[in-house]
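Tutorial sheet, problem 5. The two components below are modelled jointly, 705 residues in total.
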Amino acid sequence: MIKKLLMILFLSTLSFGLFAEGQSESESSLLVWLPPFATGDTTDQMFWQETIAPWAEAHNVKVDVEITPWGGYEEKYLTGIASGQGPDIGYMYLEMFNDFIEMGTLEDLSGYFTEAEKAKYLYWDQGNMKGGQYALPFIVGNARLPYFNKEIFRKAGITELPQTWDDLRAAAVKIKNAGLDDVIPFGQAWADPAIGALNTLYYPYLWQAGGDIYNKAGDRVALMDNDAAVRAARFLYDMRYKYGVIPEESFSMDESTLYQEFSKGRVGIAYMDAKAGSRLTKAGVEWDFIPSFTDKTKAIWVASDSLIMNSQSKNKELAAELMKFITSSEVMAKYHTVIAQFPPITVDEAYNDNPIFEDMYSNDTEYFKTLPVAEGSFKIMDNLYKNLQLMMLDALTPEEAIKNTVDYSKSIIDSE
Amino acid sequence: MTRNRKEALGAFVYILPSLLLITIFAILPIVMNIFYSFHDYNIIQPPSWSGLSNYKRLINDPYIVASIKNTVIFTFITVPLQTLFALVLAALLVRRFHDKFTNFIKGALFIPVIASAVLVGTLWSIILSSHGVVNQAIELIGLEPINWLGRQSTSLLSICIATIWKNVGYFLVIFYAGILEIPTSLYEAASVDGASKWQQFIHITIPGLSSVTYLVVTLGTIWSFQIFDMVYTMTGGGPGLSTVTLVLTIYNTAFKEYSMGYASAIALLMFVFVILLSQLQRLIMRKDG
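Model answer (structure tokens):
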């Protein structure tokens, strides 16, 4: 009997100790989940640990930074938040927001920032979605841009960079007609498995033609609202089948293969991300770019990933303070020079991205476009990609590809 | 307590640990899956009853039709071929190369099994790319290169080839062990009676491996229905819907669309398919055996 009592006492003490430990942890600690961006010698983990340490000490807070890999990113957040093990501060991309807001997992940030603080952020308004300030834009940039191989242009006798769709078509045809050995006039990566490939394959043309994926309210697919979606699809289809400047090889390339082929000097024109610029320079490629082609307007896809605060966080005020610290011009200036080059997100940070793009990030922001935060967006965009793939394989007409997507979107949005 | 009762209780205590494990990790998830399939559920908010709406959506969803079609085609291509290759290779290893290169060949063929499917998928994407080894070989014999992953007609076949390559080593080891279990006296007697190697293979090896073959075919079928990583890496389900499979659709529905209820309905559909197919196989094999 005495043994049993002693055992119960021991277990009670132990569990109390554990419980007490957990409580004190939750009251003075913050968990931060950030994705990896570093490409140099300093890892993201090292950078954030060193950068946040003085702040944590000053605020007497234990801050744990976990670098969450891109693979299985959404699952990590979904299961983490569902199990109560999610971060106080996290990082999300636009495709994730609609559902996480609907699930009530994100905290409205507007009350934690003063008007003066809000005014410092260049993209504060982009974080306002579905009636609340659920996001603090953090990585804004890495635009998708048309790149040109200057050597191929010279050999094909092209002296001016194409500015409009007509110019683009004419330049691609000139490259094709120049009979250059093993050169792809207009490179596209139609075999990329990720729906994000549409950020270079189709969306720029859709926006440039004056169209949009969703309506303004984000509750209905707007691809059939005017002829822009079909016009953009038709343009690509014609480039493949009427003008023959998108070769068969494009249907076996992903984005990284397209970059490799461009860096080998095999591609005349291709949409790639801004990060490709410095890598191409290092690879010795003579390249140039323009921010956007023009049809009815210009349009440039830019990333707009944000910091979020978990609505389950027990230390929301502290979490907001840490978000302000992380996004301060001092920290961001260091981040943009040590970890990854991106344009500034606050008015008081100097430009630390690739100087070649400074003018674009300063003067072309009115043309910047991001993906919609809308119902069923993953499935609908996936379906759009698959229908466009079929169109480019000549199994659907441009009209059918767009109509099929809109019909499918109705079944998705109606069923939710 | 009577002796019989004591014995029964003792037996129950012995099976209790595994019974508990099976209940927790096999039966309970199935029951929960059925429960969620009748609900709108996103993991975070509590499930809300939605009746048959998930099942109604199943009927009209083009992804489901394509997923079932692709998964079945994939299964009918990969299972027979990987079984056949594994059987033939195992027989060759036992009878032809026994003790010479057996360990090396077994090891070499087993490497793809332990390699991550994502790695294998990436490697095969490179091998099958427009300038990959396969197309270079095709061009050497004067033929036009094939757009393996970018064409609807060849994309699923490409994934089948990569999967067979990955799986053969595993089934080879099972067949190899099975063949070693067959008494050598049977082969000796057959030799004395003048039976050729081929006749021995047909009349002794194959019948002697019936239970092993059943295991290999059943495992292969279940694996084929679970195909995901290779598709995710190599094609993402495209071009068009030519390579979407049931598990890819379940994954996208659950973790990209956050519709756990609907994903549960698709998972239940897949569960029923696998059960039916396994039963069909059992019937066929019993008939043959």
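Marking note: Chain A touches chain B through 40 residues (CB under 8 Å). Full credit if you identified this.
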